[in-house]
Amino acid sequence: MKKTEAEMLKENLFYSPKHANYVCDEKEIAKADRFCDDYIKFLNECRTEREAAAFAIAAAEKNGYAKFNPAKKYKAGDKVYYDVHGKAVMLCTFGKRSIKEGTRILAAHIDSPRLDLKPNPLYEDEELALFKTHYYGGIKKYQWPTIPLALHGVIYKKDGSCVTVRIGDAEGDPRFVVTDLLPHLDKTDRPMSKVIKGEELNILIGSRPYGNEPGEKLVKLNIMKILNEKYGITEADFLSAELEAVPAFPATDIGFDRSLIGSYGHDDRVCAYPSLKAALDAKKPEFTTVTVLTDKEETGSDGNTGLHSSYLKQFISDLGALEGVPGRDVLRNSECLSADVNAGYDPTFGSVHDKMNAAYLNKGIVLTKYTGSGGKGGTNDANAEFVSKVRTVFDKSKTLWQTGELGKVDEGGGGTVAKYVANLGVSTVDVGVPVLSMHAPFEIVAKTDVYMAYKGFKAFLESK
Ligand code: MN
Ligand code: MN
User: Closest Cα partner for 451 from 261, 290, 321?
Assistant: First the structure.
C-alpha cells in the first residue's frame, strides 16, 4: 500500500520510537539472543557485588589487563584495572589522545536489593532455627517471603582467615526461606509497606535438635555444629561476616517467544554486564576509557566502595599524574554514561507513567535526562549539549534508543550514580535498560534492549 503524503510527513516530523523487530534484521536479533545467553550465565554466576567484581577482574586479566601501577608509564592501547576493596572495579584502556583531553567513563552498579544477615543473626524459637536480616536497598518487603533463598558472602574468622559462603544455588544444595502467614489467619489490614515488616524478614534455616536428649537451644546448637564442620566458624564469627540472602532461582528465558529474561539482579547487572563487555571489546579507543562497576548504589552510594566516595576521582587524578595533568583538568573534559536501569512501561500498571515520556521494552536503551523527584530535586539534569553528543553516537552506531522518565511528575522518583559523577565536573547522562518489576526478586528485561546497551556503550567508549 502506498503511503499518503500525510503519513510520509508524519514519519519525517514525529518522534515515534520503534520496536527492535521493525528496525533490526533477523541476523541482529539472533546476535542479541546469543549475547543474552552469555548474560544469563553471568547472572547465574554473579549474585552479589563481590562475585560480579571477581568475575570482572578474571575477565579483564584474561583479556590482557594488568593491575594499575601509578609508577609505570603507559601507552595507547594498554589496559589496566583497579580493584576497589573487592566490591567495585575500574577497567581502563589508555587512549590515543592525551589524558588532558578527558576520558570516556561508563558507570554501572553491581549491588542489588537483598536481605543481609544481621551481625548477630542466629536464634531458635520453639525448636525452629532462624536468621535475622536487615534488608538492603529499596524493596517491597512482601515480595521476599515464600521464595527459595541462597546465602552468599564471606565470613572472617577470629584468626583473620576468610571463608567464602555460597550455598543454595547448586543442584542438591538446601535452600532457605522467609515464611509468611496463611490467609486463614491473616485478617489484619496492614498497609502495603507493612504487609511484612522489616523485623519479620527472618530466614528459616533448620528444625532438628542436636542429639536425642531434650534440652535448651539444641536446634541452634545443631545448626552451629553443622556450620562449624562446614566452614570452621563459631557464632562470634558472624560479627565479622557479610552474608547476603538472594533469590535461589536461576535466570531464565521468559515467554513463548523467549524474547525476555527473568532474573534476580537485573538492576543493575543488566547494565554492568554490557558495560564490562563493551570495555573488553573497545579496542584502541581515541580517548582513555574508564569503566566503573560500583557497589552501594542501592543504599545511596556512600562508603568506600560507593561512587559518592573519592575512588573514581582519585583514580582519574592518578591517570592525570602519569602525564603531569591535574585531575580536575581531566575531569572537566570527561564524559560519562551513568549506566543504570529505568522503569519499563507495564500495561498492568500503566497509570503511574506519563506514556509520552515512558520507556518501553524492546524499544532500545533509555536515555534518562534526569531522575530525582519533587521538581527535579537531587538529580543530574544532563545538558542539551551532551545529550546531543550522545544522541549522535547512538544514531551513528545504529543503537536503538528512546527517552524515559521514572514515572509521572510528583508521583515517582529515584536516583542513580549520575549526580555523583556529574558533581566531579564530568558531563554525565543516565542510559540503561528498561526493566519490569524493578527491585523484585525476579525482574524482567527484553533481550534486544540488553544487546542495544552493549552496542551503545561500546560506541560511546570508542567515540571520537
Ligand atoms: Mn540501579
Ligand atoms: Mn535500583
Answer: 261
Per-residue pLDDT of 410-434, as tens digits, reads 887 888 999 999 999 999 999 999 9
What homologous superfamily does CATH list for 16-112+264-461? Zn peptidases (3.40.630.10)
Q: What is the pLDDT of residue 194?
A: 87
Hey, is 403 helix, strand or coil? strand
Q: How far is the CA of 406 from the centre of ligand 1 (A)?
A: 12
For the segment 47-68, what is each residue's pLDDT rounded down to a tens digit?
999 999 999 999 999 999 999 9
Mean residue pLDDT across the chain: 96
Q: How is the chain split into domains, by residue range?
A: 16-112+264-461, 114-247
Ligand 2 mean position to 53 CA, how many Å? 18
Is it the case that residue 447 has pLDDT exceeding 90? Answer: yes
**Which ligand has the shortest distance to the CA of 270?**
1
Give the number of whichever ligand sits closest to the CA of residue 137. Answer: 2
CATH number of 114-247: 2.60.34.10, 2.30.250.10, 3.20.20.370, 3.40.50.1370?
2.30.250.10
Neighbours of ion ligand 2 (CB under 5 A): 267
Task: Report whether 452 contacts 399 (CB < 8 A).
Answer: yes
Q: How far apart are the first and last CA of the chain?
A: 42
pTM, to two decimals:
0.97
137-140: long-range contacts, CB 8 A cutoff, minimum separation 24: 137/111, 137/112, 137/113, 137/298, 137/299, 137/439, 138/113, 138/298, 138/439, 139/113, 139/439, 140/192, 140/439, 140/440
Q: At what angle do helices 447-461 and 26-45 cross, to 10 degrees?
A: 90
For residue 449, report the distance from its CA to the centre of ligand 2, in Å.
17
Going 445 to 83 to 379 to 402, the CA torsion angle's sign is: negative
Residues with Cβ–ion distance below 5 A, ligand 1: 267-268, 340
